[in-house]
């Protein structure tokens, strides 16, 4: 009996108590989610979530958080448009699927919700994003001028939107290079911006094609919209490689001719002497055997 | 020349069997070689991890040893070719000593390069995929060429001696007799044969000089074509060649003394030879000292930031004890000894020779290692042992084994062939008597 009591006490001390203490010691951090909408060339639409948490006084990106995206504010299963786990940058992207078309067409405004699941270290997080459906069109007019027109859906009509900042430039190395001295323009009453293209010497492809870009970035009402257009306004770039050229730095078999002649010439001359001397040994041998 | 005098020369210069000291010497060298082979076995099994070589110092004492071997091999061209072509006859008894030092050293220079490779079974790729633009390929080509020229320069003057040795069938024993007959049974002392041999030796003497200069210049370019503190120098080719002639001559001084005392060759390797060879070493030591002043004083005067750490490391820092040891033992003390007539006596010259060779070995270590420890970019986030280099016991054993191996080749050569050319000595004695 006495032994049983001692065993019980030992069990409480060694297993149960540490578990309870540990459970109290773990304090979860609040999870902050931010949701962004992207309209890519009026063809595809995607959502991006960024998971962050304030740790040691500063916001840090949180990876490995399971997230679910919903169209409308209702987080019912039928409204689920995608799910995944945040990457090392704390981000996850979901393309709005064709299956959500019916819901998308119901209203000129659209709500999205993202829910981040609770994990042992973080609480559950949630973010909502209301957007007004808009589209951005890019075009060119004579005189190398780029135009971009922003329209939003008001009731059932596409209406030009004024006083919205639009970035106009050339797609270059993953970013946007301004087409002239100015990068950002504000739409006029017709929802249009105009930018004169002044970068004639910019390298394009073999035909001189470059990609013109107009973009609305992080707008509170319309989200992120971008439109691209290929124009033959760049300088033609003919790709040349000196990989196969003979040089002191080239790969094997591509050394300069002068070096090959010099080196092989010297080697051949010296080895010709050695071979000549080996023949002389043969001659000495012949003389000895006569 | 009387027949008895000729016979006396032959008897004096014929190779001798190992005595008790000789056997102990050979066993000692074999033991060091065996230890080296064991250490190399460990390196093959565990990889270069067993060495002190890391990311920064990837060339340690193996490459120092390689440069040392290449350097010492140059003496063959100096004694045999340069002195022969300038009609200096006193060096005749030393030619074969110099040539066998050259052949054994260049053989082990090639082997030690393979030892430095982490994957020696891929050695053939050097030939299959080597770039002609790389000094490493030039080194491979020129070392191979130098080896064959040195071998021929050893063989041609040996032919008349082989005929002499073949005559001593009883003394030679079965295997040696077979070897001598294989190498020179066709030599009949015919004037036409002498004519061809003399011509061949002259051709070799002329062609070995540019090849010898090339071998060590190219070795210096392995370093000088790399933009690093301590190696970025236009002086390197001449600096290496002068140092090579010095260490080779030091090696000849040592070999002269050992062969003279061990084989009782006082009549053939005379005090006069030591005196003259001593003067040659002084000249070469002064020349090498001059190049050292150029190599260190000029960059130290400018003290460019990138060079500063390297130079101060040598002058007053981590490498200062080795640096000053090398400068004093390889150059200053030998000059001090050999500058005086008493210092050019055999024993003193022998000591000077040892100092030159030992100091020169450490000099090669200083050429290779400190530069590797001073890259342009600071060493960050690396383990502490990456920042310093000290060879492991395996490296010491392998380096020691290669040195013992080179000595073993010389020892066996002297056991099998006459270390002083018999026929040339007879001819020289005859011509001296006729004067």
List descriptors.
heterodimer, A: about 290 residues, alpha+beta, Immunoglobulin-like, four-stranded antiparallel beta sheet, 3 helices, 17 strands, about 20% helix, flat, B: about 425 residues, mainly alpha, Formate dehydrogenase/DMSO reductase fold, about 75% helix
Q: Would you mind describing this structure in some detail?
A:
The complex is a heterodimer of chains A (290) and B (435). Chain A is of the alpha+beta class and 290 residues long. Chain A has helices spanning 2-25, 101-104, 257-289, and strands at residues 32-40, 44-55, 58-61, 66-71, 80-85, 91-95, 109-116, 125-132, 134-141, 145-154, 157-160, 165-172, 175-178, 184-186, 192-196, 210-219, 223-231. In chain A, strands 1, 2, 3, 6, 12, 13, 14, 16 and 17 form a nine-stranded mixed β-sheet that branches. The longest helix of chain A has 33 residues, at 257-289. Chain B has one domain (3-434): Up-down Bundle (Formate dehydrogenase/DMSO reductase fold), CATH 1.20.1630.10. Chain B is built from 18 helices and no strands. Chain B starts with a helix and ends with a helix. In chain B, 74% of the residues lie in helices and 0% in strands. Chain B has helices at 3-13, 20-46, 61-73, 75-85, 95-115, 125-129, 135-155, 158-166, 169-172, 174-184, 191-224, 236-262, 271-302, 305-315, 320-338, 346-372, 393-416, 422-434. With 435 residues, chain B is mainly α. Chains A and B meet through helix 3 of A and helix 7 and helix 11 of B.
In brief, what are we looking at here?
The complex is a heterodimer of chains A (290) and B (435). With 290 residues, chain A is of the alpha+beta class.
